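Table S2 (text version). Query chain:
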Amino acid sequence: MKSFQGKTLRWEWREGGIELALDHEPANEIGTAMLEELEVFVGAFGALAPEISSCIIHSARKSVFSAGGDLRELYHQAISVPEKERPKAIRSFLGRIHAVMNALDAAPFVTIAAVHGACLGGGLELALACDMIIADKMARFAFPELRLGFIPGFGGIPRLKRDLGNAVVRDLLFTGRTLNATRAHAVGLVAQLAGEGEALRIARSTAAQVAKYDPVARAAAKEFLKPIPREESQDEIEIFCELFTRPEVMAALKKFVEDSGPMPYLP
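Corresponding structure-token output:
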């Protein structure tokens, strides 16, 4: 399946690679609709892998890569089931999103996140599952989850620890503050820093360079360099579910959902 047009994303074949565009109003939130289409995407890897060398994930939205998980949907789904059943429902959703992230993490081709604008929470976790992040100078990164009473739940903490170590993880988690593109590049979160509006162009140039080299060696190098943090990810799911069921979290999410501001997801 070299092309796909969905309700929240689309992808197309381009010069030996696949480009996946996130395009879900208002801010590419990752809820069940996008999850279902991401599952279609990773389900096509078996057919795509022998023919492509790279995949670029970018955003078709003007000012955001992804604001993260769809917290409004998460809240409404949580309150629609009895309190005792909430952990089971949340665990099921997280299990599915972790399967997608792990498949992307382990893909035998090179994955590149071309980031502009806000890359927050689950959006940052999606970018972290890629092999490299190329960001324009206006991009900004954050994990604002602790202000709502829970932790990132899509595998972001284990991946940050794998790639950068605890210092950056603690800074992002405990402060909730935004990391600008220049600082993200300095600490190693971002592989290449692009001019404003240039991230996708630089990602395409990088993908063209990747295509020059042996695919078997590339896949072997990736498997060696990027062990999937499966055990820690399962621990993360359990901690998330334990925290999420607290009444304080439901109250914080209710306040978030009722916020009439244009961008309540920004920390």
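Notes on Table S2: The first strand starts at residue 3 and ends at 5. The two ends are 38 Å apart (CA to CA).
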